[in-house]
Specification:
single chain; 7 helices; 7-stranded mixed beta sheet; alpha/beta
Length: 237
């Protein structure tokens, strides 16, 4: 497990698998975007303590989608004193354990990679979802905007925090070897490409991906360039 400072108010928490989560500090409180795989409560606690905060400082867990490398620790964190768990209405039933999702439509290039990764990720325990989100919803409590990005899952979202100029893309986009490309393992690849294009004109200083290294400053132009390209970069397509 590893904690990486992206900037003074933003920390990336890397777990022992493929997942990663982000803590955004907002004064004496913090918001967590995604949770990594199951069992990450301890390292998230450590990341908060590094800021002089505690578990009571975490007010919201916002899930970009239901996959267990993103929602794996949601049930554990939902038991913390002040946490509210939010997710898109289309993925909320899956997170709660009351519904199931279809498997992704894998390309030939993805099949072996998926078989390897899927076997390393523990299942996520069902978690409550306190609020179901919709596209373009303004989340006044945390000063963020929801961007619906279906295609990876039906209820995939990105989150834009305009005051902090930070965007969390979820798995629609990923950083790979210094490039920004379409994320793998999508339910509907064509729809995912269209969702990717929503990142073409967002004013940001920092972009954080579900997988890959965050980009800052001028580096965020890589996301805009990929989103406005004639064809969305898709190395596994």
């Amino acid at each position: 497990m590893k904690i990486v400072d992206v900037r003074p108010d933003l920390r990336m928490v890397l777990d022992d698998g493929p997942g990663q989560a982000y803590l955004l500090r907002r004064g004496s409180n913090a918001v967590l975007v995604d949770t990594g795989i199951a069992g990450q409560g301890k390292v998230i606690t450590e990341a908060l303590r590094g800021w002089g905060l505690d578990r009571e400082s975490l007010t919201h867990v916002v899930l970009t989608h239901w996959h267990p490398d993103h929602a794996g620790s949601a049930a554990e964190l939902a038991a913390w004193p002040n946490v509210r768990v939010w997710a898109h209405r289309d993925d909320a039933p899956i997170i709660r354990g009351s519904s199931y999702s279809s498997l992704p439509a894998l390309t030939h290039a993805e099949e072996e990679f998926y078989a390897h990764i899927a076997g390393t990720i523990p299942d996520a325990a069902p978690s409550r979802v306190d609020r179901e989100l919709d596209d373009d919803e303004i989340l006044e409590e945390i000063d963020a905007r929801v961007l619906s990005t279906p295609g990876h899952t039906d209820g995939s979202i990105a989150l834009h925090f305009p005051n902090e100029a930070v965007l969390f893309t979820g798995d629609i986009a990923t950083e790979q070897g210094g490039q920004v490309v379409l994320g793998p393992f999508n339910l509907d690849r064509a729809q995912a490409r269209e969702s990717f294009r929503r990142f073409a004109d967002i004013d940001i200083d920092t972009v954080c991906f579900g997988h890959g290294q965050p980009l800052r400053g001028e580096g965020t132009a890589l996301l805009r360039e990929a989103a406005t390209a004639n064809e969305v970069p898709d190395p596994l397509g």
